[in-house]
Write a structure and sequence with these properties.
The chain is an all-beta fold and 172 residues long. The chain contains no helices and 13 strands. Strand 11 and strand 12 (157-163) form a beta hairpin.
């Protein structure tokens, strides 16, 4: 939902842009990462900032699906692409912004899976995880959980990994 200044009603809660950040210290890289988001309140997720090893131009895709990435990492069914865009990576440890063409609405007390993929380049950085679904970052609105490192589009996954990045969201 988009508001113009003239649309604002002081009695109606307006969306507020916020962020939640995971780690930036990853030492592993591959083609992609899947992770789960649990919403503690209704959310709209509209952008990510990712950790990209290269400073070259890369094609980044972001996919989402209702529910968890658990047991769905090797099957395209149910996944919807939010964006496919070229961007210039900012190098390891620096935030490379990815704005979505379509936002992802996550309802209160629901889980939404996300898949960040760099096409044809092993340059998405992530960290070693310990247990699928373990909380990585959380606040009053949102929880980010450990997921998978990806070695191919919707094929095999490497071990449990921690997405290195920042999630932009609005509460609604």
């Amino acid at each position: 939902m988009t508001f113009k200044l003239s649309d604002r009603d002081p009695d109606i809660q307006q969306p507020t842009s916020q962020t939640i950040e995971t780690k930036w210290d990853g030492n592993l890289r591959s083609y992609g990462a899947m992770f789960d988001v649990f919403a503690r309140t209704d959310l709209i997720i509209d952008a990510l900032e990712i950790n990209v090893a290269t400073t070259e131009r890369v094609l980044v895709e972001v996919w989402t699906r209702e529910g968890s990435a658990r047991h769905t990492h090797n099957n395209r069914s149910g996944w919807n692409r939010l964006v496919a865009t070229y961007c210039t990576g900012r190098g390891k440890g620096n935030k490379t912004p990815i704005r979505f063409k379509k936002s992802a609405k996550v309802n209160e007390r629901k889980t939404q899976a996300f898949y960040v993929r760099i096409v044809n380049k092993q340059s998405l950085i992530y960290s070693t995880g310990s247990r699928f679904g373990k909380k990585v970052a959380r606040n009053d609105d949102i929880v980010i959980r450990e997921g998978y490192g990806k070695t191919s589009r919707f094929g095999s996954a490497s071990y449990i990994r921690i997405f290195n990045g920042l999630v932009h969201y609005k509460t609604v």
